[in-house]
Structure formats: structure tokens, C-alpha cells
Write a structure and sequence with these properties.
Layout lengths: L2 H14 L14 E2 H11 L8 H10 L5 E4 L2 E4 L20 E5 L1 H10 L9 E4 L2 H8 L7 E5 L1 H6 L4 E3 L4 E4 L9
Antiparallel strand pairs: 1-3, 2-3, 4-6, 5-8, 7-8
Helix pairs in contact: 1-3
């Protein structure tokens, strides 16, 4: 089974439009694996034999670790655009985090700060390599912004762990961005 289309549709269902799949996310973004499997099987008849093992394999083989399984439930870890804001546990971030973007957007961010835009949270990378990969989705030559996350955290900005490579925040004021 090609896991890329599965990952895309699971991301769509859990991050953006769960109602299209008749799914209801709880406050943490969790949904029953059985409900998700039933929705996916209804969406694509070719997936009639789709199983929890397929979802596990999809998560294990993904480079970006977008999803998480726990006790019969599954959720997307970050990237949500649903109206229902998902609750995240605040955590102390690394000293510095990074954000890859276009030159034009970087100028605006330096004036206005980082905002979630169409997502629930601002997405930050733990290293410049990941930030560059993210930025290259928008431009061939991304600008890498440095976020003094530890300073922002000490000033009261809440941060949340997305996964091993991604951290989240509500907003980051310009004084913490270089």
C-alpha cells in the first residue's frame, strides 16, 4: 500500500475538515481509530481492508511525524486549521527556534511578529535545516528567522511541543525575532 495518499487524507481529516468525514475531535484533537478507519473506508472503497496496522506503519514511516496513536485513538500533532482550537500542554522550548519564510513575509514579521495566519498556532522549527525545508515550500531562497524562544518563554509567551522537530506558539512578538 502506498502510504503517501493515506497520510494526506488522514492529515486532511484530522487537521482541516474532520466534519467532512463525520469525525468529531476532542479537545486534544483525538478521535477513535475505529471511527477514522470507517470514514476512510467509506471515502475510498479500495481501502476496505485498511487497518490500524496500516495507520501505525504510516506514522512510523513518515519523516515528519504528523500523527500520533494512543490507546485506540489517533490525532494530528500540529497544523490544525479547524475553528475548534485544540488544547496543548505548555512546555519550555529550546533557547532558539527557527522559522523559514519569504523575504517579503520576513519584513512583515519583523514589524508585526509571527502570527498563526490560517493555522491555530505559529509553527517553529528546532533547526535551520527544517526551517529551510519549510521555507522552500514558499520560495526557492527562504529567509530563516531566529526566534529567541527562551527569552519569549520567560516573558510569558506559551510554547507547545508539536513533535521532535516542530514547536508551536500562539504568537511571537517582533522583539523576540532576528
Amino acid at each position: 500500500m502506498d502510504l503517501t495518499p493515506l497520510s494526506r487524507i488522514v492529515s486532511h481529516a484530522l487537521r482541516h475538515e474532520p466534519w467532512l468525514y463525520e469525525l468529531e475531535l476532542d479537545d486534544g484533537g483525538w478521535v477513535s481509530v475505529d471511527a477514522l478507519l470507517a470514514a476512510l473506508r467509506a471515502e475510498k472503497p479500495a481501502w476496505a481492508g485498511l487497518s490500524k496496522a496500516d495507520l501505525s506503519r504510516m506514522i512510523e514511516q513518515s519523516e515528519k511525524k504528523r500523527h500520533e496513536l494512543r490507546a485506540g485513538e489517533i490525532r494530528a500533532l500540529y497544523g490544525h486549521s479547524t475553528a475548534q482550537k485544540l488544547m496543548k500542554e505548555p512546555a519550555q522550548p529550546p533557547v532558539v527556534l527557527f522559522h523559514g519564510t519569504t523575504l517579503e513575509t520576513a519584513r512583515r514579521i519583523r514589524e508585526e511578529g509571527l502570527k498563526p495566519m490560517g493555522r491555530q498556532y505559529v509553527h517553529l522549527s528546532i533547526d535551520t535545516i527544517t526551517a529551510e525545508q519549510v521555507g522552500k515550500r514558499k520560495t526557492p531562497e527562504p529567509v530563516i528567522l531566529h526566534v529567541r524562544a527562551d527569552e519569549a518563554y520567560k516573558a510569558g509567551v506559551p510554547f507547545y511541543r508539536g513533535n521532535d522537530l516542530v514547536w508551536l506558539a500562539d504568537v511571537i512578538a517582533p522583539e523576540f525575532i532576528e
